[in-house]
């Protein structure tokens, strides 16, 4: 440093041996350099060995290379006062003139959020048009199997179930392909609706498939439906990744020969070796685990396959439009007769021994309980360790009455643990969140959720829904470790106030944002990077209307604007939609 010259230095100031020091200054500038320095600098997420300066340099180089892009929005349709070009918008968020320039309401952010939403809505609209355009096959059942199923049921279908079924049957009878989302709260009887839909397809002389996200669930669907199907003369089979050798070969041969009416399985149903004689309807359980790609793959398993997707996590309306805009929607809100309300209480973990004592009294009366262990971190191994620890502790108290099930167990061991609990050989089932979806043991009336503050609202609601399935009075205990943060406090309050899954879903969206609610992080569904639905919600309707108009007027995305829109889809990684156009 030249003696006597003035320099501007920035970096982290530390204290060492009583002296202030700056070990690695970010910058050492003279007066000219200081004058040229931007007043605001972005800070990017980085990884070890990658400095902010390197990232900034790369971004500057990329911004300089943006070519003159055609405009893909129709200006008259927008009515947004300040509307920068795509390149200007990118420049404004990477080189902000003031901190407000990167705020959610800044013109640059609004422009980019609208671009992202339009790309998503256009991709969904193109897929919907493709499904509508590809000819379907009308499947008209004569009701003979349905009437036998109805006769075997101990109760009548709810009005919601009948309405959903009527909508599905109308779709099946149409000459276009069905793509419908059936959403319902925990225990609203979606599987039964799906069974009647599959029966209608079998009446029309074709086959149906039901795909579940896990083996436990697939097996449970199979066991739950086997009795009803047998009574109605429906031939049911199960196919999971665990089936090997001769048994698997026999199932596949029977399927190809048309001797199986309904096949239940996991994603093993996607494999090329699985060939149906004539698949007419594919039912996908727990929709948010499967992305658009899988919806297409399952539909390719037969000629003009109708698709019904089910989710037990009620999805707020804005998210239905955002992620499932390619589908028609049926909703089940009513609970079937006989479902009991669930008493929900919250207790601090310090009172654990009181909970164990209360369990002892309940078990003496023959009760059965789930004990769900906490999500430790993003690590299943740690989750398992926590479950094993709680299992050992409860075993000391209750001996052989305690069972354990977690995701790292072999399939057969999981089945044995579940079977022992269902049969009442064990009365407490210690589990990680593998039991969250679909597990159905009507005799279980107690749900203990340890470290409830670590779970999301939808997850807590799903777990609570594992009890209250029989005629007994059920309860759910939320054990938490204080002091609680604001969000955790809000979650527990809502859980105590309501059992309405749709209200819970709306609150969950407010508290957590859309990526978490739908599990986009795990499922490969595209989360948003620029749009934030709580702020940019009104833009969603704008993007949706624009996408529908584009598909109606220019379904093949031809001409200058078509080229610009193809560019938009590629920029936002929605190229899959272009593949549907059969070109580009």
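Sequence proposed for the structure above (584 residues):
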């Amino acid at each position: 440093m030249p003696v006597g010259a003035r320099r501007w230095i920035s970096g982290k100031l530390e204290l060492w041996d009583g002296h202030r020091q700056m070990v690695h200054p970010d910058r050492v500038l003279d007066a000219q350099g200081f004058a040229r320095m931007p007043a605001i600098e972005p800070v990017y997420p980085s990884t070890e060995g990658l400095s902010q300066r390197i990232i900034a340099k790369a971004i500057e180089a990329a911004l300089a290379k943006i070519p003159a892009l055609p405009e893909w929005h129709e200006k008259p349709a927008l009515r947004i006062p300040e509307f920068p070009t795509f390149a200007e918008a990118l420049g404004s968020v990477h080189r902000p003139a003031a901190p407000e320039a990167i705020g959610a309401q800044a013109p640059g952010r609004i422009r980019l959020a609208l671009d992202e939403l339009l790309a998503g809505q256009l991709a969904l609209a193109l897929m919907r048009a493709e499904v509508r355009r590809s000819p379907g096959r009308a499947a008209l059942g004569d009701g003979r199997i349905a009437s036998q199923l109805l006769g075997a049921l101990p109760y009548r279908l709810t009005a919601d179930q009948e309405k959903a079924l009527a909508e599905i049957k109308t779709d099946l009878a149409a000459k276009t392909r069905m793509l419908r989302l059936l959403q319902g709260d925990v225990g609203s009887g979606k599987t039964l609706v799906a069974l009647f839909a599959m029966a209608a397809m079998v009446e029309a002389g074709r086959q149906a498939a039901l795909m579940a996200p896990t083996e436990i669930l697939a097996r449970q669907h199979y066991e739950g439906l086997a009795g009803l199907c047998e009574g109605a003369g429906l031939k049911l089979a199960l196919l999971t990744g665990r089936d090997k050798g001769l048994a698997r070969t026999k199932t596949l041969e029977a399927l190809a020969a048309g001797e199986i009416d309904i096949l239940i399985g996991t994603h093993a149903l996607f494999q090329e070796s699985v060939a149906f004689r004539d698949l007419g309807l594919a039912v996908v359980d727990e929709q948010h685990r499967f992305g658009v790609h899988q919806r297409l793959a399952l539909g390719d398993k037969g000629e003009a396959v109708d698709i019904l997707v089910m989710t037990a996590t009620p999805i707020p309306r804005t998210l239905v439009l955002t992620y499932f805009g390619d589908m028609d929607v049926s909703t089940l809100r009513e609970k079937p007769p006989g479902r009991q309300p669930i008493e929900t209480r919250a207790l601090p973990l310090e009172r654990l021994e009181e909970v164990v004592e209360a369990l002892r009294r309940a078990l003496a009366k023959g009760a059965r309980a789930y004990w769900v262990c906490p999500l430790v971190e993003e690590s299943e191994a740690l989750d398992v360790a926590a479950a094993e620890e709680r299992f050992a502790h409860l075993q000391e108290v209750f001996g052989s009455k305690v069972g354990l099930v977690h995701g790292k167990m072999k399939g057969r061991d999981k089945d044995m643990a579940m079977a022992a609990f269902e049969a009442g050989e064990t009365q407490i089932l210690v589990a990680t969140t593998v039991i969250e979806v679909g597990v159905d043991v009507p005799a279980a009336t107690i749900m203990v959720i340890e470290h409830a503050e670590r779970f999301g609202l939808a997850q807590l609601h799903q777990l609570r829904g594992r009890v209250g399935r029989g005629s007994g009075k059920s309860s759910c205990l939320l054990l938490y470790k204080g002091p609680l943060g604001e969000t955790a406090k809000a979650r527990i309050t809502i859980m105590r106030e309501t059992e309405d899954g749709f209200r819970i879903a709306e609150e969950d969206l407010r508290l957590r944002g859309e990526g978490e609610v739908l599990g986009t992080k795990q499922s490969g569904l595209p989360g948003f990077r620029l749009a934030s639905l709580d702020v940019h919600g009104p833009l969603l309707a704008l993007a949706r209307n624009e996408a529908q108009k584009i598909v109606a007027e220019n379904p093949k995305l031809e001409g200058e604007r078509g080229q610009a829109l193809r560019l938009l889809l590629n920029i936002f990684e929605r190229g899959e939609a272009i593949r549907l156009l059969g070109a580009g």
